[in-house]
Amino acid sequence: MKRVIFLLATLFIVSCSDTQLVDYWKSPDTDTYSPTKVLVLGVTSDKVARLEFENQLKNQLELRGIEVQRSLDLKEFSLDSGQITEAQLDQLEDKLLDEYFDTIILSKVVGVEDKIVYRSNYKNYDETYRRFKDDYLRYQDIYYNPDYYNEYTVYHAETAMYCICPTKDRELLWKGYIDITDPNQKELAKTVKRYVNVVIMSLEELNLVSPQLELPEDHPQSTQQ
User: Fold this and answer.
1) 95, 156, 200, 220: which sits with the fewest CB atoms below 10 Å from its CB?
2) Are the C-beta atoms of residues 46 and 109 closer than 8 Å to each other?
3) Model-wide pTM > 0.90
4) DSSP string of 33-98, one letter each residue
């Protein structure tokens, strides 16, 4: 029950920002999970955003005692590697197992949606006695007055955690569906930070990563929280 309450609170908190966890799925066969060595991978053509995401997620996981490698540090996923075949991915998974990786966290944008919201606050307007000309004149402003509507873009993203443990089938453990509303390219680091925080909060509460370790005040990463 505590977990349900916390997740509802998490959904409410993040819905108040421009980055929202709108839904998630967790494997019913996994109560708890403790990754020890993780590959983080951001799939995007935006090189700067990919670097920012992988760096921030790496830092947060390391604060929880997990060894992490960015995909950018692997030649298979370098910025100039191009498309990767299924056979190459199979070889990569075998390589990761040989190097004692047990987890992959993959993030990607799966859709972009342009939205328009019209202002609907007409508290002093009597709907019962509305006349044709009143109706027409009032609503034509929607199309000619920018104050009557707000345009914005929503990016639909997904982050997934996969187990690549040698003792069990390679499987999906968790997937979060996250919406990012009108991200500001000039504030990329802040947007990524909010996104990563949403991911980490969900994984922690679902017992898929451990809570953050206590760090001494003079530790370099203690100032990054």
Assistant:
1) 220
2) no
3) no
4) ---SEEEEEEE-S-HHHHHHHHHHHHHHHHTTT-EEEEGGGSGGGSTT-----HHHHHHHHHHHHH
Q: Quick: pLDDT tens for 88-124.
A: 888 888 899 999 999 999 999 999 998 877 666 544 4
Number of H helices, E strands in the chain: 5, 6
CA distance 63 to 222: 9
Count of other CB atoms within 10 angstroms of residue 212: 16
Q: Which residue has the tokens 């639909």?
A: 156
Distances in Å between the Cα of 110 and the Cα atoms of 7, 43, 54, 93, 219 are 23, 10, 18, 23, 37
Q: How buried is residue 167: exposed, middle or buried, by Cβ count under 10 Å (0-12/13-18/19+)?
A: exposed
| 61-81 pLDDT tens trace | 999 999 999 999 988 887 666
CA torsion angle for 188, 193, 194, 198 (degrees, to 10)? 140
**Which tokens is 7 given?**
């997740």
> Is the alpha carbon torsion for 208, 102, 84, 62 positive or negative?
positive
Kindly report the backbone phi and psi dihedral angles of residue 28, in degrees, each rounded to the nearest multiple of 5, phi listed first.
-70, -15
Write out the two tokens for 113: 């949606």
